[in-house]
Specification:
Largest interface: B-C, 70 and 53 residues
Number of strands of chain A: 16
Distance between the termini of chain B: 16 Å
Strand content of chain A: 15-25%
Largest sheet of chain A: 9 strands, mixed
Oligomer: heterotrimer
Number of helices of chain A: 16
Structural class of chain A: alpha+beta
Distance between the termini of chain A: 76 Å
Shape of chain A: elongated
Chains: A alpha+beta, B alpha/beta, C mainly alpha
Strand content of chain B: 5-15%
Largest sheet of chain B: 11 strands, mixed
Radius of gyration of chain A: 30 Å
């Protein structure tokens, strides 16, 4: 039943009676050079069926051999979320028929996955930190891709035939399953963003929904607030961006609330989200449960993971995004926006170094996010690749904080160091760029300008504020930018109003 | 040297000594196969051009001074092993026209060692069967009686060697598919320890049981072939990283100091007087060679068949899912892909394959997995433990390879009756042990007119191929049973 | 357990095998007798026994993350029953997979 068909309008009052319960299931393609069980390249795109071999095409007689890096990525991902890594793990066959599954079974993990449990801590737009538990993360292989031909919109329904490309078949995949701990579309997106950030920081995946390296399904149900039993859930598929996930969850919550509030019962089913139309369509009843006939993969041998191996992999974990976020917004007092931008912009390491070199956090964040980032964007390089060392930047911030130089000079000096490297202190001293804050010197500049601009002075006295700005600009020009602008304005006003 | 009857050892030595060229070997073999295979039916595909190509390469390498352990040795390859550019059918309509785009590791190693590929041999469809009658593509006859089966599933490979249409051949053994046809065809058939020979390129039937192994007319030849192909393969995660001890240069001439276990549960007294006598003689011969005979018990062995007929079909039901008409092989069109799958597989698979897929699917299915599949895997643990315990008391185990000699076509119409042919070989497979069949005499079958070969099964602990082949060689040279029988298919013009 | 007639049509569906009614009948009988045959396993005490997944004891057999050339597209599609502009073509897919 689509939104349009609902009889009941869900008002805010009705909405408030219900709690939405969401669990997210993600498939994340791992960043490796080769596929999970064969040496074919793990890459996005390419002409169809040019990246295949007997193994990933499931030719008779072919056998899988697991990619060691994929296993290590998995374990590190689990460790990043505090999951338990068992001493023993294995692969299993998940048997079902589908044209993009060359073997008609998928090598996956059933009862002994590489990680168990774990907690994903994420932040909401307002900076609140929440957490959702992970059921598990396990390792498996991706399927090929089918394109459906003969229908108007490229969807399966209405197609007359399909074309299958196995380039993607066998790419290593992490399946992350969360507990139904999320309670809103915002939380769901926050959770997904946390997964993405963490996987990118770990280097285990690029996590690009538009390239299919992150795919997710949401299990959504509703219940009256205060209820202890879960409502019937529906699975939503086909969301191709985080925004899409947000919209789809909100839509589904409303759809289900309308049904329940109207006295009906939610059907357990799979629904496909249609981003263009903003609605979901029933795909099939999830009651038709599949019998996957899982059994241990006889072509592979089990994995034994020692404490030493786990410790060695744990030692390779970088600073985790959520840990940084909490420190930035807590101890360092940055705004949520600044903290998020530093982390998501790949600027956190640079920022940390600048703070370690003595710069006050807020000022450092400011200059990194504004001036330095602008220079970097214009040059098409990363901040960390520039000539501006964190130590130099810290020095510059110190000069500004001490009001030794004003902000305009600060920008100039930054530009100089950007092009040539070097130390701001040295440049300022060598070229005498220190701000002029001596009142009598400033007064001298002001008097010169007032004498040369009697009309502007008169305009100001007549009530035009803009004239003051002009006069300030002239003083700055005459002092070659070094006059303390605050003092300049102060002195000008004094002169003009006396 | 008569190429047709020469051993691999003789051929390789002669080619190395340049007293004959690989090219001449190839021509003689091609002519011989043309002469006898009409009646024998061992080959589904012959590859004379490929054989000539390889022969030329071997001759060039010999001329350049290389040493090739199998220089010029003609080899027949069971049609479930991929050889690039050749039709690889597995005896099935579903792969009747499929040409493999790659060569499996074991075959490649043998070709690299100088072997010349004669062609691909007939087999029970997807290696399921014990008579070769389940082939959808041809009939192979027992070289010692054209009215009888060669055994299976490697019937073609066994018949080719037994009928002098190949010097050596490759078969695959899951529950006895090398040992039983070897016994029926008067040749040596050897199954290495599970994991010794790469399965990459072997079309999978039961992944935890399948092994590639050689047929030959002498134990020494089987040892030569094994030595050239065994060892870890990075393409097969189940191939073991244990150093391969060469076997062909360590063959024994007696069995002094060895204890041979005779299995209480495999008593031959109820197999009929003649067969009983045949094995009693064989055991006595072992003793005469210096072995001490000890009685051992394998109390769980009797559950071997039940165990096997749950595990093997379960694994095969999954392994054969890939045959669906999408990427290769037969396709029967349907209104939608689901219908295409069902019609393709219905048309492409024979009844035995369908039966095993059905029972395997059932054993894995929801509600039945623990009672059937898991139970069988536990029984398997017990069977392996029985063998381990028996090997505390003995170094080798001896038993019949099969309970009867080769039977007539259509003699075993009941599937379960056919399954019983692997009674002695299956428990050994379940434990992963190295094992072989070596000719041990002949008996006139019930209703038969002349003696038919019998095979003695020997098995040894995991990874003890050198011991096993060494002992078999001692038995063989002392008893020389194989040469006492003449095949009924024309050997020489 | 042996007295359960196997639901042959259901199992055949799982295995994507189209069976004629005659085959359903015949296989049903054969499978039932096979199940009687394997049912003797129930007598075996496997209480304290672990299931064998493999007889070999290897662990951690893996391959390094290196790219190895695969098949040319020509070879990949050579045996395809129906190929179209580099893809494998199949009849329409009715239900989406799980």
């Amino acid at each position: 039943m689509s939104v349009a068909e609902r009889d009941l309008v869900v008002t805010p009052e009705i909405r408030a009676k219900y709690e939405v319960v969401i669990g997210i299931e993600c498939h994340v393609e791992l960043k490796t050079a080769s596929k999970m069980f064969c040496g074919c390249r793990n890459t996005f795109g390419g002409e169809p069926n040019t990246n295949v071999c007997p193994v990933c095409l499931a030719m008779p007689g072919a056998l899988p051999v697991p990619n060691v890096l994929a296993i290590e990525h998995m374990i590190r991902a689990g460790l990043a979320f505090g999951a338990a890594i068992p001493a023993y793990s294995k692969f299993d066959r998940k048997n079902y028929f589908y044209p993009d599954m060359p073997k008609n079974y998928q090598i996956s993990q059933y009862d002994m996955p590489l990680t168990q449990g774990g907690i994903v801590r994420y932040w909401l737009p307002d900076g609140t930190v929440r957490e959702a538990a992970l059921t598990r993360i396990h390792l498996e292989e991706d399927t090929g891709k089918s394109t459906h031909a003969g229908s108007a919109d490229g969807r399966i329904a209405g197609s007359t035939y399909s074309l299958v490309d196995f380039n993607r078949a066998g790419v290593p995949l992490m399946e992350c399953v969360s507990e139904p701990d999320l309670r809103s579309a915002d939380e769901a997106v926050g959770y997904l963003e946390a997964l993405k950030r963490t996987f990118v920081a770990l280097g285990v995946s690029d996590v690009k929904m538009e390239e299919g390296s992150l795919r997710c399904d949401a299990n959504v149900s509703v219940r009256l607030r205060g209820a202890t039993e879960y409502g019937t859930k529906a699975e939503i598929k086909n969301m191709n961006s985080f925004r899409s996930v947000h919209r789809a969850i909100e839509s589904e919550a409303e759809r289900q609330i309308a049904i329940v509030e109207g006295g009906g019962r939610v059907v357990q089913e799979t629904r496909g989200w249609d981003e263009a139309a903003g609605v979901s369509h029933s795909m099939r009843s999830k009651e038709q449960a599949h019998d996957y006939r899982y059994f241990p993969e006889p072509d592979l041998v089990p994995m034994e993971i020692t404490e030493e191996r786990i410790a060695a992999l744990r030692a390779t974990l970088p600073a985790l995004p959520i840990v940084r976020f909490e420190r930035y917004t807590g101890e360092l007092g940055l705004s949520v926006a600044a903290a998020a931008q530093l982390i998501d912009g790949g600027l956190a390491d640079y920022f940390d170094a600048t703070v370690d070199a003595g710069a006050p956090p807020a000022a450092a964040a400011n200059i990194v996010l504004a001036d330095l980032s602008r220079l970097a964007n214009e040059a098409g390089i990363a901040v960390s690749e520039s000539h501006v060392s964190p130590a130099a930047l810290a020095e510059l911030v110190a000069l500004l904080e001490a009001k030794t130089i004003n902000s305009k000079i600060g920008k100039d000096v930054l530009g100089r160091i950007w092009r040539e490297g070097g130390s701001p202190k040295t440049i300022v001293e060598a070229e005498g760029l220190a701000q002029v804050s001596d009142p009598s010197a400033v007064a001298g500049f002001v008097d010169e300008v007032l004498a040369a601009n009697a009309q502007s002075a008169a305009d100001f006295r007549a009530g035009k504020e803009n004239a003051l700005k002009f006069l300030v600009g002239q003083v700055m020009k005459n002092s070659r930018g070094k006059a303390n602008p605050v003092l300049v304005e102060q002195v000008l006003r004094e002169r003009l109003t006396s | 040297m008569d190429v047709t009857t020469a051993t691999a050892r003789e051929i390789a030595s002669a080619v190395a000594a340049k007293s004959i060229s690989a090219g001449e070997i190839a021509e003689a073999t091609i002519a011989q196969v043309a002469r006898v295979d009409g009646e024998l039916g061992a080959y589904l595909t012959t590859t004379p051009e490929l054989m000539r190509e390889h022969a030329a390469r071997v001759d060039a390498r010999i001329a350049a001074g290389e040493t090739l352990p199998l220089a010029g040795v003609p080899i027949a390859i069971k049609d479930n092993m991929c050889v690039r550019g050749t039709r690889t059918t597995c005896g099935s309509k579903i792969l009747e026209h499929w040409v493999a785009p790659y060569t499996g590791t074991a075959v490649q190693r043998l070709l690299d060692a100088g072997a010349l590929p004669i062609g691909k041999t007939n087999m029970d469809e997807f290696a399921m069967g014990s008579s070769c009658e389940n082939s959808a593509l041809g009939v192979t006859r027992n070289p010692y009686d054209p009215g009888r089966v060669p055994g299976g599933s490697s019937g073609g490979s066994a018949a080719a060697v037994g009928g002098f249409a190949a010097t050596v051949s490759l078969g695959s053994d899951t529950g006895g598919s090398i040992r039983e046809p070897a016994a029926f065809c008067n040749v040596v058939g050897f199954k290495p320890t599970y994991g010794r020979v790469s399965r990459y390129g072997l079309v999978a039937f039961a992944s935890s049981l399948d092994q590639i192994g050689p047929f030959a007319r002498t134990v020494e030849d089987a040892a030569l072939v094994y030595d050239a192909m065994a060892g870890k393969d990075p393409h097969d995660a189940t191939s073991v990283d244990i150093p391969v001890e060469s076997t062909a240069d360590h063959l024994r001439t007696d069995l002094r100091g060895l204890r041979v276990g005779i299995v209480k549960e495999f008593a031959t007294s109820d197999l009929g007087a003649e067969i009983d006598a045949c094995y009693r003689t064989a055991y006595a011969d072992l003793e005469r060679l210096g072995a001490e005979l000890v009685e051992v018990e394998l109390p769980t062995a009797k559950y071997g068949l039940a165990t096997y007929y749950l595990i093997a079909p379960a694994e095969c039901s999954s392994n054969l899912a890939r045959f669906d008409g999408v990427r290769y092989g037969l396709r029967v069109d349907g209104a939608d892909v689901g219908e295409m799958y069902e019609k393709t597989r219905a048309a492409g698979f024979g009844p035995e394959v369908k039966r095993r897929i059905l029972i395997g699917t059932y054993a894995l299915s929801s509600g039945y997995y623990d009672a059937y599949y898991v139970k069988a895997q536990k029984a398997r643990t017990k069977i392996a433990a029985d063998f381990a315990r028996a090997f505390e008391k003995c170094d080798l185990i001896a038993s019949p390879a099969a309970s009867t000699p080769a039977f007539g076509f259509n003699a075993k119409s009941d599937p379960v009756a056919m399954y019983l042919m692997d009674y002695y070989t299956i428990p050994v497979s379940l434990a992963g042990l190295p094992s072989l069949s070596v000719p041990c005499g002949a008996v006139v079958p019930e209703g038969g007119t002349h003696p038919m070969p019998m095979g003695l099964q020997l098995a040894s602990p995991l990874f003890s191929e050198r011991l096993l082949l060494g002992a078999a060689h001692a038995y063989e040279i002392a008893t020389k049973h194989a040469e006492k029988l003449a095949p009924r298919v024309a050997v020489t013009p | 357990m042996a007295s359960d007639r196997i639901d042959v049509p259901h199992v055949a569906k799982l295995a994507r095998l189209a069976l004629t009614p005659d085959e359903v009948e015949r296989f049903g009988g054969q499978l039932a007798s096979l199940l009687t045959f394997v049912d003797e396993l129930r007598e075996l005490d496997t209480e304290s026994v672990a299931a064998t997944a493999q007889v070999i004891e290897s662990r951690n057999v893996v391959r390094p993350d290196t790219v190895v050339p695969g098949l040319s597209r020509e070879d990949a599609l050579a045996g395809a029953p129906a190929a179209q502009i580099g893809f494998f073509r199949v009849p329409k897919i009715i239900a989406a997979a799980d």
